[in-house]
Amino acid sequence: MKVTLIPGDGIGPEVSAAMVRVVDAATGGTIEWEEHLAGSGAVDAGHSPLPAPTIQSIRQNRVGIKGPLQTPIGSGWRSVNVSMRQALDLYVSLRPVKSLPGPSRARYEDVDVVVVRENTEGLYSGREHEAVPGVVEALKIVTRAASERIVRYAFEYARANGRRKVTVSHKQSIMPLSEGLFLDAARTVAEDYPFTDVEYVGLDNLVMELALDPHQFDVIVLGNLDGDVVSDMCAGLVGGLGMVPGANIGTKFALFEAVHGTAPDIAGKGIANPLALILSAELMLRHVGELAAAEKVRAGVERVLADGSVLTGDLGGSATTEEMTDALMEAL
């Protein structure tokens, strides 16, 4: 099986190399990695931020995994992440947030929440322009078709994974047309799933309740910008972005990713935590039906964290990326 690999920027190549070692060990080397560039790495090599061969590789292989990509703030190029999601119609952002053993900055134990975020429209899609000097307009597009399919994905995910409840989050009270359309679409879809509990919660109340008691939630489905914020908040409940995986899923293609940043301050020092991308690879393995390999990866991560003797600095240890990867290899 071929998988498109985009190492990414900053610490991306380091955590990608660690991920490849672990996945190769878990699968017995059955994956053929097809490496391509995107982001700053592509620009530095004289290409566009998202070269056509990179997208074509994902289209051919149908599955890809990437490290973090740099997006210049205020200038430069448009977010490559957003461009890839739209080009491949990766309409689902899937973020399983689950407590892991071992030392952590987390305030809670036994958190198990899945955030399902619409990935292609809304304010986060970046459609904006300067109407007149000093006045910028941002366009929020919400369609019934996109709203229904993301909510349906959330319910199907809940049913397939034994989840008891879907929480639909919205801000209909302030944006009755756009958020009202999303909410109405959600209510329509929910009628097809009478055996799954559903609740409709305002975004502000959702954030408060997550901070008070995340255990009351199971699957949460939101619009694009809201989901971006809430998924990162949920990551904070279990120790941060270095402890959670991410996936972008469409009807035909899937792209798995580390959701943390490029961390340029530690790039090249060999001390980055590789767990987020390794856990994203676990999601990838499940997606392609390599369930035994996925279980090996998950169990290896949990063993290393529970042991606690070989951890990177962000987890309270002093191990290098390579040392932590070696420990994971041994745990497999």
Can you describe what's shown?
With 332 residues, the protein is an alpha/beta fold. It has 2 domains: 1-93 and 241-332, 3-Layer(aba) Sandwich (Isopropylmalate Dehydrogenase); 107-237, Isopropylmalate Dehydrogenase (3-Layer(aba) Sandwich). Helices cover 40% and strands 19% of the residues. The protein is built from 11 helices and 12 strands. It has helices spanning 12-27, 40-44, 52-61, 80-87, 144-160, 178-190, 203-212, 224-237, 275-287, 291-307, 321-331, and strands at 2-6, 32-35, 63-66, 92-98, 112-118, 128-132, 135-138, 165-170, 197-202, 219-222, 245-249, 254-258. The strands form 2 sheets. A 10-stranded mixed beta sheet has the order 2-1-3-12-11-4-5-10-8-9, sandwiched between helices. Strands 6-7 form a two-stranded antiparallel sheet. A hairpin with a 2-residue loop joins strand 6 and strand 7. Helix 1 (12-27) packs across helix 10 (291-307) and helix 1 (12-27) packs parallel to helix 11 (321-331). The longest helix has 17 residues, at 144-160. The model has no long low-confidence stretch (mean pLDDT 96).
Average pLDDT taken over every residue: 96
Main sheet makeup: 10 strands, mixed
Q: Return residue spans where pLDDT drops below 50 for at least 5 consecutive residues.
A: none
Which term fits the overall shape?
globular
Element string (H = helix, E = strand): EHEHHEHEEEEHEHEHEHEEHHH
- Give the number of DSSP strands: 12
End-to-end gap: 21 Å
Q: State the name of the first-level CATH class of the largest domain.
A: Alpha Beta
Helix content: 40-55%
By secondary-structure content and strand pairing, the structural class works out as alpha/beta
Q: What's the architecture of the largest domain in CATH terms?
A: 3-Layer(aba) Sandwich
Question: What is the CA-based Rg, rounded?
Answer: 20 Å
Count of helices? 11
